[in-house]
Write a structure and sequence with these properties.
This protein has about 110 residues and is an alpha+beta fold. The chain has 2 helices and 4 strands.
Length: about 110
């Protein structure tokens, strides 16, 4: 039986990027391959030029993924930049675990 899609609410001017991982059916692990896609709504009321600019930005974001495979310098710069954006200090600290309840401290 295939999984049914999960529907999410989006604003009419949202642009959505989906990354669908290829899953090995034998061990339920990611194979390393992904399918990339993007969509927006027909109700989008942005100026057409702005909408085109958003699509161009999305295409550049999606193009960065295969570029990371071929350009080690680019991949390392992107990795270091992403790592710097998510600092350990910004993550909540787990202060207690009881059964299925996890207490965290965001300060």
């Amino acid at each position: 039986m295939e999984d049914e899609p999960i529907w999410m609410d989006f604003d009419k001017n949202d642009f959505v990027i989906t990354l669908t991982p290829a899953i090995n059916k034998k061990d339920n692990r990611w194979t390393g391959e992904i399918m990339l896609n993007h969509c927006s709504t027909q109700d989008n009321d942005m100026h057409p030029e702005d909408c085109d600019n958003m699509v161009q930005m999305i295409n550049m974001l999606l193009a960065s993924i295969p570029l990371m495979e071929h350009d080690l310098e680019f991949r390392n710069k992107l990795y270091n930049h992403a790592k710097a954006m998510v600092k350990e200090d910004d993550k909540p600290k787990i202060i207690d675990k009881i059964d299925n309840v996890i207490s965290v401290n965001f300060n």
